[in-house]
Amino acid sequence: MSALLEARGLTKRYGDQLALDGLNLSVAAGETLCLLGANGAGKTTTLNLFLGFTTPTAGTAVVDGQVVADDPAAARARLGYVAEVVSLYPSLSGAENLQFFASLAGVEVDQARRDAILSRLRFPDGAINKPAGTYSKGMRQKLGLAIALMKDARAILLDEPLSGLDPAAANDLVTVLRETAASGAALLVSTHDIFRAKEVASRIGIMRHGRLVDMVDPAKLTAAELEQLYLTHMAERAA
C-alpha cells in the first residue's frame, strides 16, 4: 500500500539547534502513526514540515505524492490539520465556522454530507447551531476533524489532540480517530500520552532529541511494557 505521508531524511536546524535529525517514516491509508515524546522531541517540527509552515534544512516531506517544499499550498490542499487548540470564531455557530473554513479550502458544504460526518464523529445533536464559544475542548477537536473530513483530506495531522480532555471525552475521541483511520485516512498524531497512543495507534514512533529512536507495534506490548520502553529511551537521553 502506497504511503500518503512520507518523511525522507527530514532534517531541520534552527541556528545551532538540531530540531529534527534525518527522520524517515511513512503512513499509509488506514494507518495511525503516533509520534510519542517529551516536549522538544521534534514532534511538532515534523508536523510543521509536512504542513509547509517551515522549510527543511535537508530531506523531503511528501504528502500524497506531492513534495511539500515544491508546492506547500498543493500539499496542504491534500491535508487535514487539527491543532492542539482548534481556533474557531466564538461568536459564530459551529455550522458557520465549518462553512467558513471549508470555503477557504474551496469546498462547498453539502448539509446532508456535513450531518453524516458530524454523526460519525458523535458531535452532540443540535450543537452545530450553537456558538462555538460555548464548545468544550472535545467538541472543538471534533469540529476541527469534521472540517478536515469535509475537504476530503486523505491524510490528517493531529497535534496533541487528546491533551486537556477529560477521560470520557478522550475515550470518545480515541474511538472517533480509530474509525477515521478505518475509513481509509492516514493519521499522523503527535502526543506525549503513552496510554492513549497505545489505544489509537497502528504504530508508535518514539522520538528523542529530534531523532526517531524506536518504532513499535503497540499490539505486541502491554501498556506497562510500552511505558518502560519509553522511560528507558528517556533515561538514555539523560545519560
Write a concise keyword list for the protein shown above.
239 residues, alpha/beta, Rossmann fold, 2 domains, six-stranded mixed beta sheet, four-stranded antiparallel beta sheet
Give the domain tally: 2
Rounded radius of gyration (Å): 18 Å
Tell me which oligomeric state these chains represent. Answer: single chain
The secondary structure category is alpha/beta
Number of distinct helices = 8
Strand count, sense and barrel status of the largest sheet are: 6 strands, mixed
Helix content: 25-40%
Contiguous uncertain segments of 5+ residues: none
Number of strands: 10
Secondary-structure map:
Elements: E1 3-14, E2 17-28, E3 32-36, H1 43-51, E4 58-63, E5 66-67, H2 72-77, E6 79-82, H3 94-104, H4 111-120, H5 137-150, E7 155-159, H6 167-182, E8 186-191, H7 194-200, E9 203-208, E10 211-216, H8 223-238
Parallel strand pairs: 3-8, 3-9, 6-7, 7-8
Antiparallel strand pairs: 1-2, 1-4, 4-5, 9-10
Helix pairs in contact: 3-5, 4-5
Concise synopsis of the structure shown:
Helix content is 37%, strand content 27%.
Structural summary, described in words:
The protein has two domains: 3-78 and 155-238, Rossmann fold, CATH 3.40.50; 89-153, no CATH class. It is 37% helix and 27% strand. It contains eight helices and ten strands. β9 (203-208) and β10 (211-216) form a beta hairpin. α4 crosses α5 (137-150). The termini are far apart. The model has no long low-confidence stretch (mean pLDDT 91).
